[in-house]
Amino acid sequence: MPHDVGAGESAISPVASHLPGESGIWVLILGDLVIFTLFFATFTFYRGQSLALYTQSQHTLHQSFGALNTVLLLTSSLFVALAMNALRREADRTATGLLALAFCCGAGFLTVKYFEYGEKLRAGITLTTNEFYSFYYVLTGLHMIHVILGMGVLLFMCRGAWSGGRGPPRIVLMESGASFWHMVDILWVLIFPLLYLMK
Amino acid sequence: MIIGSTRRVIILVWLILVLATCLSLWVGENQIPVTRIGLATSVVIALALIKIRLVMHYLMEVRTAPLVLRRVLDAWLALAGGAILSIYWLGEA
Fold it and tell me: Which of residues 54-73 of B touch A (CB under 8 A)?
């Protein structure tokens, strides 16, 4: 296999290149990243136009909720990465357990979101309250749909890891699911500072 | 052929990611003098970009992916970070 790792990286990992997952999943991931980037740029632009409104509205968000959700998704990514490592060592039971833990982190994320949305809705804050909250609900809502889809993928991966079997098609399928879940994590890593922390 | 990262590297990267999140929260929660608000926001965004690159390279296994994918993802990250920061600073001006 060709060795296309850059000269500066050869000492870190002397390996041939390997695409983690199907090429189709990467088309989906790149498309999602571009669409969310457009949202992020639009949000930042409109924020600059009505700075006082955005800053005042941002103060009603709980930064600790956002940080907790960030840690939950980062931890789920940790479990997924460790599960892929276990699968390659043919430790299927370990991989199943790790994927189940990643699923629980996703469920934890949704639970925090449930309390966060509930608090806002009880206070009468909805999608139409103002421009900031429109962005807040649309961005976090679209991301939450990705989390729910990702949790479905994790369940599918759990089943795949539990049922055993070997060979490249199985690993490629698992890598595709893992890559999708990591993308869900990556998106939140940017949503958190934009909505909760930007001053 | 070695694919992905070792367990030790994965756990170490996760620890760095969690610490970076705590640092972001600390910067975001603290009262910052008006003159340093722009700097604080830039630090928080820069930390997010660093975290994303760590996730992509060490957890998502992009480090050992074909060169074209690594370059495309790096270009996206530079473009996203550049766009957010430049639009932010234009709004501040």
Answer: 55-56, 58-67, 69, 72
Q: Which portions of chain A are predicted below pLDDT 50?
A: 1-13
A29 token code pair = 């991931």
- The DSSP call for residue A2 is -
Please give the residue range of the domain that contains residue B48. Answer: 7-92
Asked if residue B35 belongs to a domain, the reply is yes
Q: Do A37 and B80 touch (CB under 8 A)?
A: yes
Q: Is there a contact between A48 and B88 if contact means CB atoms under 8 Å apart? A: yes
Interface of A with B in 17-56 (CB under 8 A): 17-20, 26, 30, 33-34, 37, 40-41, 44-45, 47-49, 51
pTM greater than the 0.80 cutoff: yes
Number of compact structural domains in chain B: 1
CA distances (Å), A146 to each of A98, B60, B85, in order?
20, 17, 25
pLDDT tens per residue across span B41-91 = 999 999 999 999 999 999 999 999 999 999 999 999 999 999 999 999 998
Distance CA B37, CA A75 (A): 30
The predicted-structure confidence for A82-140, as pLDDT tens digits, reads as follows 999 999 898 999 999 999 999 999 999 999 999 999 999 999 999 999 999 999 999 99
3-state helix, strand, coil in chain A (%, to 5): 80, 0, 20
Find the CB nearest B28 among A20, A37, A63. A63
Is residue B86 less than 8 Å (CB to CB) from chain A?
no
* Whole-angstrom distance, CA of residue A15 vs CA of residue B1: 6
Query: What is the per-residue pLDDT for A9?
Result: 39
Fold classification of A61-197 is: Four Helix Bundle (Hemerythrin (Met), subunit A) (1.20.120)
How much is the ipTM here? Answer: 0.94
**Gap between the Cα atoms of A165 and B61, Å rounded:** 22
